[in-house]
Amino acid sequence: MSRDQSAAGAAALRNETAVGAAAQLLLLVLLGTAIDLGPAGWLTGLAFAAATWAVLTRALQRSWLASFGAANRVTLARATLVGGVTALVADSFESPTPVTALVSLTAVALILDAVDGQVARRTGTSSSLGARFDMEVDAVLILVLSIYVATFLGPWVLLIGAMRYAFVAAAWMLPWLNGQLPPSTARKTVAALQGVLLLVVGADVLPYPVAFGAALLALTLLSWSFARDIRWLWRTRAARAR
């Protein structure tokens, strides 16, 4: 690849992240117009947009991707929706929550979560960066939803959103936790259920006992999944070290 081609590819990747940031700003403007988004929502949404643009731009600079790819565009669209959800949750601490908007954005984001992987496989554009991007967007959405649900079910719900970040923090001190896990349908199913269950609870359509039970089920399944993976990493640490 020539220097000119490399520069053109880098410029194209920067344009993709710039379009994502612009889409995030447009969504915030639409939310601000439709529901009178408050200062907390605006500031949180803008901070999310800036952080996403900065982290993704740096990741792309360090990757060997020649193009952004259709799957990453789907994930970027999902990240934009998650930014909108984040802004709405932040705004809910100052004003009544627009539940319809919150549920709609979250539902579309969850649907797109099943789309980007299929697009990557069909177009042959799977990459480690794309997988990590997808995972981080999922983690942020679950964290934000758990914060929202915790406001009426109790702070224990925050464990759902914090568990993945606690695992990452533990891996800094325990390197064996950084091992590559084998593919698992159970792990993927549990991860998908987190968003669905928190969305249903957050929609405020269930009686309190049922909503409490649904959130508790989400936490129980997630705890089981993490415990299962940690056990596998512990039992295979010696073999992986060799």
TrEMBL record:
It holds the Pfam family CDP-OH_P_transf. Gene3D superfamilies: 1.20.120.1760. It comes from the Bacteria. PROSITE patterns: CDP_ALCOHOL_P_TRANSF. The chain crosses the membrane at residues 12-31, 37-56, 140-167, 206-227. Keywords: Membrane, Transferase, Transmembrane, Transmembrane helix. Belongs to the CDP-alcohol phosphatidyltransferase class-I family. This is CDP-alcohol phosphatidyltransferase family protein.
